[in-house]
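Table S7 (text form). Paired inputs.
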Amino acid sequence: MKKLQFLKTLLHFIWFFSIIGIIGMAIFIPFQFFSKDPFDIPIKINGEILLAVDLTTKIILTFMVIAYCFFVYGIYHLKKVLDLFSKRIIFDESIILLLHQIGLNFILASLFTGLPLLFYKIIHEGNIGIEFDGGFSSFLFTSSLGLFFMVLSDVFKIAKTMKEENELTV
């Protein structure tokens, strides 16, 4: 259980600073969106440097903020799952639902990040340069992580029905 406690502490730490990031973005993005003057602050997302100078870049930046919010919401659900695990609630319908929602949030976060960056490359560079950087922020990693949580939800659903069938036979 020390590993579970360490993971819970780490996720609480990440979630706390993510909320601070969301508050900062909630203040910065509307100001950036309605400002006529471009900022000289380069924004680097998944290896792409975005300068918010035109409307399309500002819209792409807005999609990135939405993706970040989906990811943080997935982390929030993961915190709730770990809290239930620490209470020894494992094969419960709420765990299955939370795991599915975590997967869905991570997939939506990867889509809201990957597709606008693809459009940004098409609009500003004129080509579809797809790069596989292989890092933790890559489209494939985040979407695979989301699919993993959805599969884990299905595994827990199967295990729950098997547990209920076992309890009925005894």
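Next pair, protein 2 of 2.
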Amino acid sequence: MISKPLARLALVVASATFILPSAIALAATDPAAVVRNYVNIAHAKYDDALITAKALDKAIDLLIANPSEDTLKAARDTWIKARVPYQQTEAYRFGNPIVDDWEGKVNAWPLDEGLIDYVDKAYGTESDENEQYTLNVIANPKFTIGSKEIDATRITPELLSGTLQEAGETESNVATGYHAIEFLLWGQDLNGTGPGAGTRPATDYDTKNCTHGNCDRRAQYLKAASTLLVSDLDYMAKQWAPDGEAAKAVLADPKKGISTMLTGMGSLSYGELAGERMKLGLLLHDPEEEHDCFSDNTYNSHLNDAIGIDEVYTGRYTRLDGTKIEGASLSALVAEKDAAIDKELTGKLDKTLDAMHAMAKRGETVEKYDQMIGDGNKEGNAVVQAAIDGLVDQTKSIQRAVSALDLGEIELEGSDSLDKPDTVFK
């Protein structure tokens, strides 16, 4: 099911003035330093995402060379680890066009998996919205898209990114990124809102004992997607290096840079995470609206999004190797203007994180996210709703921080799921 396009929520904030005593003004937090720290953390996060993607690529090589339940499990475990630093980058997406224009290559969802590989008969054979709904590239070395004949005898990164990604201008034709790889490692989750994730067998890659056919081509696709993921993350890590285009764009004007930071926090909090990724699925009780739907890893992805939002505000990040990055922060900047608003926002960020950690703990000990949002599961629904409420509430304080900093007008992503919930059932 395709989510409705995000609505735009315009926020117009009133100007505010605050005159600091000269002694305090001398020690004031420098907005340029806040933005530099934001850039440094972005570079570190995308570099960590790249490191984990390279580890995933190696695990995939081992799976392809020696298909077994052990090598498949190792690749799956490495995929889950790779999601952690990437999800913590998502607050950089909104407000940074370089990131937003690129993001679909690595994290687009939901996807129509019939484009890629075999699917269960319950998936159906056609869709009014997608001509490539059951194209099954892995099983078909030649096919047409529109009026163009495609030679897919060899499945390459170029085929995935240049031909298949959003084929026919259809957003659900997701051929690249984390979720295409996830599908190829787990297969479809056919359990609805019941227990269990995807159960693809390792023999789907075993050319000597092949299940479901085309094991060599399935391996080609998986390797091509993994190669692309590494390449795409390498590109983005370079954009946030000191001489990178994303870094230069946000550093050029510190005041705009601060606005970008708050835009990213607010848009991810409200429209994207609380709305499109969480409230929509909860309203519909639909496991197809689950972000990491094949692996049942969604609660971890949502938690790491929330952690990333908090890190933008606090200006702190701990790298995979334990290195701590900390510097001038939005929190300090807001506190100098209005200590009460900083305390309010910090408290709400903490409350949201508590709700997200509670959801993740439930995901590890009681039931997975797709079960939590199931119809009639009052307790599970309430756990998810508490996290949504925290995200919505912290967005209100983000708006207050924008006002305190006298940043003028900014735009945050909205969501029909939050703003016009009745429309999602039409």
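The CA atoms of residues 157 and 224 lie 5 Å apart.
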